[in-house]
Amino acid sequence: MEFVEPIRKIDDIYKMKKILYEQSKRDYLFFVLGVNTGMRISDLLQLRVKEVWDQENAREFFTPCENGNSYYLNYVVRSALFNYLTQTSLTREDFLFKSKKNEFPITRQQAYRIINKAAQEAGVEGKIGTHTLRKTFGYHAYRKGIALSILQKIFNHSTPSETLKYIGIDIHTEEPIKVDVNL
């Protein structure tokens, strides 16, 4: 497997979101869910509608059966879920990222093509792949002040240095993090 990088620039994330939104609500949701939850690609692809949707609204939290981690679905994700699921005829049992060709979810290869093509169109530099979504989540969570120990637990890493390396942080060259409670 080739090493991929997080998307470090917020503007690049917004460019990719715009491209994916115009291309496909499913692909947009895939990207948004990935960068906002840090889920593994294998878990994302196995999600079923019933795990994130209660027939009228997106759930605030959900726990996929396979891994036991709970994930928070923020406003951006819930909005993307609403826009996608109210415009499709997916059932509760359907895969959330159902292929257009059959009843199965899109493949890892298709997920890679979706992310990579959008990154190229947006002019994102660096090596981009499906793990980029998870790494982007970790990178930006860390930059916003989420404790490294929490990210280490989310990623199931054994050491903090493993997590820093995974999310593309070099503590010797990174800018300092602003922790401003602004009370």
Structural class by SSE content: mainly alpha
What's the average pLDDT?
92
Q: SSE order in H/E notation?
A: HHHHEEHHHHH
Radius of gyration: 16 Å
Helix content: 40-55%
The major beta sheet can be summarized as:
2 strands, antiparallel
Arrangement of strands in the largest sheet: 1-2
Walk me through the structure.
The chain is mainly α. 50% of the residues lie in helices and 2% in strands. It has helices spanning 10-23, 25-37, 41-46, 49-52, 75-85, 108-122, 131-143, 148-155, 160-166, and strands at residues 61-62, 71-72. It has a two-stranded antiparallel ribbon. A hairpin with an 8-residue loop joins β1 (61-62) and β2 (71-72). The chain is globular, with a radius of gyration of 16 Å. The protein starts with 9 loop residues before the first helix and ends in a 17-residue tail after the last helix.
Sequence-ordered SSE layout with sheet pairings:
Blueprint lengths: L9 H14 L1 H13 L3 H6 L2 H4 L8 E2 L8 E2 L2 H11 L22 H15 L8 H13 L4 H8 L4 H7 L17
Antiparallel strand pairs: 1-2
Helix pairs in contact: 1-2, 1-6, 2-5, 2-7, 8-9
Features:
single chain, mainly alpha
Brief digest:
The chain contains 9 helices and 2 strands. It is an all-alpha fold and 183 residues long.
